[in-house]
Amino acid sequence: MTVLLSTILTLSVLGILAAVILYFVAQKFKVEEDPRIDEVEKMLPGANCGGCGFAGCRAMAEALVLRDDISALFCPVGGAECMKSTAAYLGKVAPEKEPTVATVRCGGVCGKRPRTNEYNATKSCVIASSFYVGETACAYGCLGYGDCVDACKFDAIKVNPETGIAEVDPDKCTACGACVKACPKGIIELRKKWPKNRAVYVSCVSKDKGAVTMKACKAGCIGCGKCAKVCAFGAITVENGVAYIDSQKCKLCRKCVNECPTGAIVLKGMDPLPKEPKAPAAKPTAEKPAAEKPVAEPKAENKSVNEQK
Questions:
Q1: For residues 107 and 113, is the Cβ–Cβ distance under 8 A?
Q2: At residue 3, what are phi and psi to the nearest 5 degrees?
Q3: Which pLDDT score is estimated for 3?
Q4: Tell me, what's the pLDDT at 27?
Q5: What does the longest C-alpha to C-alpha distance in the chain come to?
Q6: Do 139 and 251 belong to one domain?
């Protein structure tokens, strides 16, 4: 009994002594944290989506407080107002950035992109694309298995069961970029967000030749370049057989929409331009009949005046 009590007493003393030593060591080597970090973290939306490039809002708050220049930092969820209030609290210049929205660049709905086979494995875009091009002949389009839906924390993207294509709700989208990273096909892009959710973009990323693209999807881009020719702002380029509209240069003139022969250019939030009536073909002018040449009168034959006697 005495041995047991002495053992317990010894261990208790050692534990208390170790705790005291650890306390003084922690006080000696502790790192003082800027109290403003906690305040800035409260100003951020707390989504922890990673859209800012950091692991979460806490890491973003630390960067905002500790960096002198915060022009490269931006919270897509909080937006410009959040960054202005944060910068004002820290006495720094707020970064400016145009609002963006996620855009699914695929228009291969069920009626235009017929199925060629059936997929019965795990419904995951990443798994499917690792060994399989999809249930259609297009190797570039949306698979429709919803990896982007699972990645979105704001319920801003859904797969339309009627079309099999992912669709973004621009009013809910925060442009965090989670769906962009989740898409193995690379068809989701962050593009400039226009007022009233207006948009003009090419809903195709196929790099196949025009004939191959049209065989797989009737709504695909064939790279004809007609849209680029009518664009007066240099916003459209054609590369690797597919057109691309730069949302920073586009002025929403909508001329390219009417010019696209396959309907690959999508127009949202606006009515298309009225199509110009084609000028009637000029009637061919009838050729005038050639003037008849006057027929020369036969020359009078010189008759012999010799008289036979």
A1: no
A2: -65, -40
A3: 81
A4: 81
A5: 194
A6: yes
CA distance 38 to 58: 8
Same structural domain, 86 and 104:
no
Exposed, middle or buried by CB within 10 Å (0-12, 13-18, 19+), for 147?
Answer: buried
- For 87-139, the DSSP string reads HHHHTSPPP----EEEEE-----TTTS-B-S---S---HHHHHHH---SBS-S
Pairing type for strands 157-159 and 166-168 reads antiparallel
pTM (2 d.p.): 0.75
Determine the Cα–Cα distance for residues 98 and 120; give it in Å rounded to an integer: 42
- 237 token code pair: 């380029």
| Same domain assignment for residues 70 and 179 | no
DSSP code for 302: -
Residue 81 falls inside a structural domain: yes
Q: Evaluate whether 257 touches 250 at the Cβ level (below 8 Å).
A: no
Question: What count of residues does the chain have?
Answer: 309
Q: What is the pLDDT of residue 296?
A: 54
